[in-house]
Task: inverse folding
């Protein structure tokens, strides 16, 4: 149940006159089945093997000789060689896959497993997916169909189409509805097949054009038979190989009204089983709401999320911080008291220095005083020398 | 072509945890907190300076008093030791290896603070040949924590580049700034364990001037073992 391209009502168009809606029908549930290209690819590759014809190589090919190895000692390879003489064939190597005219490696056998069994439910799943894809315009366009001029997709057309008998009428209808461009494409790109199929009765290669799906064949089959590229199919027997040719989903289909309505009965829905396929319900998608971005951005999710964590630093990036004993600003950031401390220390140092200076000065002064005083004494002593004293004595005598 | 802002974007902006208003509010709160921390740091640093000075003076006083009386003053046994691992990893026997691991001395020239008690002294006895240890003074503790102090934050080693870092981790132990941390470590306070484990093991450089011989103990003119106060000079050479 994709919520994106759900079109609950589809218009039905006439087959001639004016291209306008003559009726509206509800979209069958099949068109909301999950589109699974992986399932379709698997089923398609296996289903495509089922119309193979057995082929093999002749059982006696390369074995119709009585060749024997010459053995060693003859300066030739030990491969079996054709017996006899008198002909070019004698002495030639035989039997081996490497020999000219020998048997191939692992000769192909008819009893190779040509066909594949596929689980029924898988087959039905693939068909449901393929049908759903035919309503998705981008898929149809990407498959290569020219659908620009169509009034609507899925294209549903009145049941009168089923009663067409003449090819001319069919072509006229296709032109009327805007589907002939796809047919023109087919005609334009008809080519000779590349490869050997061309001389094996598979000379030409055609593109796939529109597919017309009907409920009752009242001549429609023959009418569209000869138009290149166009295929017809009964709605009861829709073939995956036609709905998704080359396992590429999105075939351009033109439905008749009754065929379109029958899809609901044939494939059922999720509540009601199919009327024709016993016990079959439409496959369920894994996600109901596939708009993941919208879900993530919704209020319900966002309010429950935790805060976004701050971006972590790059691995190995170290936070550089200067040495606080060299950079004052770093030191102050860590210890705001540091500047004051230095200041106080400085003041204390100065105070101590001053005190010390006073003490030192004082003691120096004392020392100098003492020195000076002792110098005076010495000088006095010097002044009073022996000679002088004698002179004084003499003078006293006189 | 008018630009219409999608509803989801509008809602996202409104709901955004990084919107301008929210950021502004957060920033204001943070600034206020930082200011508080820094004023606390200032006051406490002042207090601690006085405390350390008083301690020193008290010690001197008691010694002098004892000298006067003719007796001896027995100083209290040291509570804090700083251990430096001075031998490498190769060839260490299991018991010392385990003890070195327990003390976070996992590489050569790594250093840790440790509280000295009977059990830790016993541990040191076992690892004596691989470490040198001693009693650090305030300036050594300060230098280590300021210059080489890294914190263990979110199982990561991050350099302590602001007091906010310390506040975030150690606020509940009343340690909010660097000086608090230094004080807690140096005086081996009540929350020494938490302060110490906040610090990553110090990664020191090989000593300037080298070792004499690590094979001998310090007492025998080598380097390993207890070197009491001479750890301070060694740390200066290794910091």
Result:
């Amino acid at each position: 149940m994709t919520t994106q391209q759900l079109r609950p009502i589809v218009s039905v168009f006439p087959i001639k006159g004016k291209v306008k809606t003559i009726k509206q029908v509800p979209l069958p549930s099949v068109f909301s089945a999950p589109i699974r290209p992986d399932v379709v690819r698997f089923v398609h590759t296996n289903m495509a093997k089922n119309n193979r014809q057995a082929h093999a190589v002749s059982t006696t090919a390369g074995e119709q000789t009585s060749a024997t190895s010459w053995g060693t000692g003859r300066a030739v390879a030990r491969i079996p060689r054709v017996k006899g003489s008198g002909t070019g064939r004698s002495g030639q190597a035989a039997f081996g896959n490497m020999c000219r005219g020998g048997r191939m490696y692992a000769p192909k056998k008819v009893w190779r497993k040509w066909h594949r069994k596929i689980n029924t439910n898988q087959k039905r799943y693939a068909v449901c997916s393929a049908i759903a894809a035919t309503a998705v315009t981008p898929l149809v366009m990407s498959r290569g169909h020219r659908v620009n001029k169509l009034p609507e997709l899925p294209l549903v057309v009145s049941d009168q189409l089923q009663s067409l008998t003449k090819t001319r009428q069919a072509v006229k209808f296709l032109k009327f509805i805007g589907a002939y461009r796809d047919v023109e494409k087919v005609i334009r790109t008809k080519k000779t097949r590349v490869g050997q199929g061309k001389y094996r009765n598979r000379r030409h290669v055609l593109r796939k054009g529109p597919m017309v799906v009907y409920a009752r064949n009242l001549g429609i089959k023959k009418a569209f038979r000869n138009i290149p590229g166009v295929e017809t199919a009964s709605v009861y027997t829709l073939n995956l190989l036609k709905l998704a040719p080359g396992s590429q989903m999105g075939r351009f289909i033109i439905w008749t009204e009754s065929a379109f309505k029958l899809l609901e009965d044939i494939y059922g829905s999720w509540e009601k089983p199919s009327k024709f396929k016993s016990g079959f319900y439409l496959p369920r998608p894994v996600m109901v709401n596939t708009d993941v971005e919208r879900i993530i951005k919704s209020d319900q999710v966002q309010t429950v999320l935790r805060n976004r964590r701050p971006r972590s630093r790059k691995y190995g990036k170290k936070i550089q911080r200067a040495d606080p004993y060299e950079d004052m600003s770093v030191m102050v950031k860590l210890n705001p008291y540091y500047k004051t401390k230095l200041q106080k220390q400085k003041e204390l140092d100065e105070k101590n220095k001053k005190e010390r200076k006073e003490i030192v000065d004082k003691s120096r002064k004392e020392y100098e005083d003492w020195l000076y005083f002792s110098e005076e004494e010495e000088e006095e002593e010097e002044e009073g020398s022996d000679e002088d004293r004698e002179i004084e004595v003499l003078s006293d005598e006189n | 072509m008018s630009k219409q802002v999608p509803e989801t974007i509008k809602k996202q902006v409104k709901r955004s945890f990084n919107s301008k208003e929210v950021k502004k509010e957060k920033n204001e709160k943070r600034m206020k907190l930082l200011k508080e921390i820094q004023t606390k740091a200032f006051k406490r640093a002042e207090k601690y300076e006085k405390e350390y000075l008083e301690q020193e003076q008290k010690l001197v006083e008691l010694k002098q008093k004892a000298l006067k009386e003719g007796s001896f003053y027995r100083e209290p046994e040291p509570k804090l030791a700083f251990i430096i691992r001075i031998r490498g990893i190769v060839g260490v026997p299991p018991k010392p290896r385990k003890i070195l691991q327990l003390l976070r001395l996992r590489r050569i020239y790594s250093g840790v603070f440790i509280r000295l008690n009977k059990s830790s002294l016993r541990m040191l006895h076992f690892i004596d040949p691989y470490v040198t240890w001693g009693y650090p003074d305030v300036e050594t503790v300060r230098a280590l924590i300021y210059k080489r102090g890294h914190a263990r934050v979110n199982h990561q080693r991050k350099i302590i580049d602001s007091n906010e870092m310390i506040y975030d981790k150690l606020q509940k132990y009343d340690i909010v700034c660097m000086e608090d941390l230094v004080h807690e470590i140096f005086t081996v306070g009540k929350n020494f364990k938490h302060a110490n484990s906040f610090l990553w093991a110090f990664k020191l450089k090989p000593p300037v001037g080298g070792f004499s011989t690590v094979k001998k103990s310090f007492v025998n003119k080598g380097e390993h073992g207890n070197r009491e106060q001479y750890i301070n000079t060694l740390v200066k050479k290794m910091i």
Remarks:
- The longest helix of chain B spans residues 20-69.
- The mean pLDDT of chain B is 94.
- Chain B touches chain A at residues 8, 11-12, 15, 17-18, 38-39, 41-42, 45-46, 49, 143, 146-147, 158-163, 177-179 (CB under 8 Å).
- Chain B has nine helices and seven strands.
